[in-house]
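Hi support team,

I've been running sequence recovery on a batch of backbones for a student project. Most finish fine, but this one hangs at about 90% for roughly twenty minutes before it completes. I'm not sure whether the input is malformed or the queue is just slow. I've pasted the structure tokens below so you can try to reproduce it. Let me know if you need the job ID as well.

Thanks,
M.K.
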């Protein structure tokens, strides 16, 4: 059963919405605010043709060097990211923050280390790289991407945090924060108060369902509330387009919150009615469509929502046991 869910997840991780495949990361370079730049992966699953370039990475040029957020999916893409940064600035690349240890965000870390950056991540990264399943996934990626994976290693971070680190670079302070367990146990964000720019990783999703199988859905809701409290002017997600207005940001954060909350409430009600996991998986799509028919328009809702329900069922069941229900 879990193997079939993994297959659905792999198909979903970047479900294709079409588009060309950039031959170099720099072809996607955008300046999103003064001193802040991004490169943007395609809306597809990882495959040989797109070279694994399905996620975003960002960098900030300061008087004292360059700060990078996320490192892309392979060593080669990480090298292209470094080359793209060098086209903008010759200042030293000092720090590379990894939002979370999923393959499309940290496999390029070796190229950033090679360029002189200290890699920063949540301490959960060490648990991830020590798991046999993570190495099995790494071997699967090598078979899928073949020569595109050359030079790629599972690089552990140089600096870890469990909550807060402040990085001072010239006149800019970058606040690196672990608000909660959300998409994974080790999600971190970066916030630049002076620019009101937030690098969110995969905590906020735009145009597709969030995957709820690696982290904690209850805590994820707390994370989303914290993002709304920050009230950023610019939100830069791990996938998708940059969100450049407060209205757009609030809409997408609230949408992510509503979906997770709808799913959790519906599953809790089903458990209270005595339904088992098989019933929940079979009926969860219809139940959510009764709440909001627009969910049917979200790409891969019908395939991924039952996968999310599988994981959240056990999470909610445990919560109810702790409550004595």
């Amino acid at each position: 059963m879990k193997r079939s869910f993994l297959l659905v997840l792999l198909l979903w991780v970047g479900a294709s919405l079409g588009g060309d495949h950039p031959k170099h990361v720099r072809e996607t370079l955008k300046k999103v605010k003064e001193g802040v730049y991004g490169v943007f992966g395609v809306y597809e699953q990882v495959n040989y043709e797109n070279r694994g370039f399905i996620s975003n990475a960002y960098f900030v040029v300061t008087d004292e060097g360059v700060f990078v957020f996320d490192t892309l999916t392979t060593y080669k893409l990480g090298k292209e990211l470094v080359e793209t940064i060098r086209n903008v600035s010759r200042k030293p690349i000092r720090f590379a923050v990894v939002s979370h240890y999923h393959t499309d965000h940290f496999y390029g870390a070796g190229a950033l280390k090679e360029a002189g950056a200290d890699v920063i991540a949540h301490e959960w990264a060490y648990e991830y790289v020590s798991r046999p399943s993570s190495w099995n996934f790494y071997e699967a990626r090598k078979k899928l991407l073949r020569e595109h994976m050359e030079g790629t290693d599972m690089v552990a971070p140089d600096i870890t945090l469990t909550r807060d680190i402040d990085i001072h670079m010239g006149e800019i302070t970058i606040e690196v924060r672990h608000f909660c367990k959300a998409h994974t146990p080790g999600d971190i964000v970066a916030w630049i108060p002076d620019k009101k720019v937030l690098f969110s990783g995969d905590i906020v999703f735009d145009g597709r369902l969030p995957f709820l199988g690696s982290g904690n859905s209850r805590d994820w809701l707390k994370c989303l509330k914290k993002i709304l409290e920050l009230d950023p002017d610019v939100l830069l997600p791990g996938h998708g387009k940059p969100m450049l207005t407060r209205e757009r940001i609030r809409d997408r954060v609230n949408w992510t919150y509503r979906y997770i909350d709808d799913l959790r409430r519906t599953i809790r009600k089903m458990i209270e009615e005595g339904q088992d996991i098989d019933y929940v998986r079979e009926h969860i799509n219809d139940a959510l469509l009764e709440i909001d028919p627009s969910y049917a328009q979200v790409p891969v809702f019908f395939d991924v929502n039952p996968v999310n329900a599988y994981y959240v069922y056990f999470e909610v069941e445990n919560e109810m046991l702790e409550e004595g229900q």
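--
Follow-up from support: It reproduced on our side and the slowdown came from queue contention, not your input. The longest strand covers residues 57-62. No action needed from you.
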